[in-house]
Amino acid sequence: MADKALVGEGLTKVFGGFAAVKDVNLSVRRGSIHALIGPNGAGKTTCFNLLTKTLTPTRGRILLDGEDISRMRTSEVARRGLVRSFQISAIFPHLTVLENVRVALQSSFGTGYHFWRSLRAVAPLNRRAEELLEQVGIQDNRDSPAAALSYGKKRALEIATTLALEPRVMLLDEPTAGMGHEDIEPITDLIKRVAVGRTVLLVEHNLSVVSTLCDRITVLQHGEVLAEGSYKDVSNDPRVVEAYMGGIDE
Ligand SMILES: Nc1ncnc2c1ncn2[C@@H]1O[C@H](COP(=O)(O)OP(=O)(O)OP(=O)(O)O)[C@@H](O)[C@H]1O
What we know:
With 250 residues, the chain is an alpha/beta fold. It has helices at 44-51, 74-79, 97-108, 119-136, 151-163, 181-194, 207-213, 231-235, 238-244, and strands at residues 4-15, 18-29, 33-37, 59-64, 67-68, 82-84, 169-173, 199-203, 216-221, 224-229. Strands 6-7-8-3-9-10 form a six-stranded mixed β-sheet, sandwiched between helices. Strands 2-1-4-5 form a four-stranded antiparallel β-sheet, covered by helices on one side. A hairpin with a 2-residue loop joins strand 1 (4-15) and strand 2. Residues 15, 18, 20, 38, 40-46 line the site of adenosine-5'-triphosphate (ATP).
């Protein structure tokens, strides 16, 4: 159990009689970057939403560091170090980049969204916010309104606000979705950097990103696990090739 940061056991989610996820077993090794992939409608988002506690499983269990978190609220699991990017700290477009990270830090320090608290009380958080901006490479934009950032830099800001919650396990939902070619490489490098010393699970459509970033891949099809292994293993698996035929995105 010690090497498994996050485990899904027999995860099933039924929507009005339709099983979007069926008896999925999934283990995310500590320190790894693990991807959930599969053709459209395979159940990736549903599975991800179960693991991130956005949805409650119809059946099955989720274990974080061996502890059953199946019935816990997202805020409880976030306190235990399982954080979905953007789950708590959505970007506030009219706040500056620095203020956005500070708000995320306030929520992790339990001071919440009490904007009326004196500026003096939040000032010590500025240094940490600046460090986080540096870590994701957008320190030069600290005083810009978040709305003015390029798409790629917005994603970097979202990662900074996630890091503010000190995640041990980070869950990223399609981190490169909607990105132009020029933004994909920097965000891939950034995820690699912030993954050091952490565990990362992501849903990602871009298979070239998956191949460069991920240690382990789970392929879903029709709500079930079709294959699991390294990118090389799964991409050479004839069942995976067949599942993707006609439905591949990249
Ligand atoms: N809330 C819901 N109610 C009913 N059916 C749902 C619901 N959410 C998902 N589904 C169905 O479950 C199946 C799996 O959907 P899901 O979004 O998890 O797949 P996906 O692999 O993420 O797909 P995509 O790559 O297209 O985003 C689909 O057939 C979808 O229509």
